[in-house]
Amino acid sequence: MRDEKSQTTEERVVALLKANRKDLRAFVRAVEALVPPDGDVAGFLDEMGASLASDDRAIGALELWDKASRMYEEQSRLEEVAELYANMGPIAAQTGDVPRGIKFSRKAEELAGQLDPDPGLVYHVSSDLGAMYAELGDWEKAMYEDSRALEVSRATDNCLGQINALLALAQVSLARQDLASARSEAMGAFSLAHTCNDRMLEAEAMRTVGDVSEAAGEHEQAIRQYEQGLAFEAMSPDPETRAQLHFAMSMACDATGDVERAARERNLAEAVGLPADAEDEDSDA
Q1: Residue 200 C-beta-side C-alpha neighbours within 13 Å
Q2: What is the pLDDT at residue 278?
């Protein structure tokens, strides 16, 4: 183990988290003790929380951010606390506490309304809320938030934002059995991805188009669309998208009675596996 003096600040924070897992208040106090004299304590806690979040240490990140947010509010640093709550929302949802995530994102939304319009923050919060409401199965609220994210991304000519919002809306429409809207949104995302020359998003959009065809009982067409998606993915490899396409293809093949191909596609999906670092992400948590 490295000597404490040779550790970076981020490494020391990780070590403190490991040493204080059963007493997270003590962990926060220990991290505060690392702040230089006359330093910005809230800003330091915010920064270290972001470092932990990027390292998939969500519980520790949320503890530091919770303290930082209270300090920001006491100091009337509204822009910083709004951004912080916007970051806390999806991280809390990732821990399985979706209602808490929604609460944080709603706080960010309220604070954003007190500031000069920040389209980036509004898009961030709306897209996160859309995903969280969708996870809860609250399709009406999910559709509202995703529609707002789409509106903001169009107003700011944010191509990537528009594609992601359209794909999210297509999934909501699918869940609501509104296949006409889902097809329109998925094809809109595909057209934009093509315009932006983003092969990975073309693949993801074509998978969604295939999902719509599959939901409509158009299994042969879905298979052709999944094949198109795989062709785009091959130009910009993304293992998760590839696995999803192969698995979706297996379901469509099952529906057509092609059991042998369905089995091959499932095997291909399983063969993609996880990135090496993802397999061990919890080994030193």
Answers
A1: 8
A2: 38
Is 275 exposed, middle or buried (CB count within 10 Å of its CB: 0-12, 13-18, 19+)?
exposed
How many angstroms separate the CA atoms of 102 and 52, rounded? 21
Separation CA 199–CA 13 (nearest Å): 39
pLDDT of 136-195, one tens digit each?
999 999 999 999 999 999 999 999 999 999 999 999 999 999 999 999 999 999 999 999
Integer-rounded Cα Rg, in Å, for the chain is 22
Reported as a pLDDT band with limits 50, 70 and 90, residue 283 is very low
Q: Which long-range contacts does 166-173 make (Cβ < 8 Å, 24+ apart)?
A: 166/192, 167/204, 167/205, 167/208, 168/127, 168/130, 168/131, 168/134, 168/142, 169/143, 170/208, 170/212, 171/134, 171/208, 172/130, 172/134, 172/139, 172/142, 172/143, 172/146, 173/143
Question: Largest Cα–Cα distance of the chain, in whole Å?
Answer: 70
Q: Is the distance from CB of 10 to CB of 51 less than 8 angstroms?
A: yes
State the Cα–Cα distance between residues 10 and 13, nearest whole angstrom: 5
Q: What is the pTM of this model?
A: 0.86
In the chain the first and final C-alpha atoms are separated, in Å, by 16
Query: What would the two tokens of residue 79 be?
Result: 């822009």
Q: Which pair of tokens denotes residue 89?
A: 């929302």
Calpha distance 261→220 (Å, rounded)? 13
User: Which residues neighbour 253 within 8 Å (Cβ) at sequence distance 6 or greater?
Assistant: 223, 259, 261, 262, 265
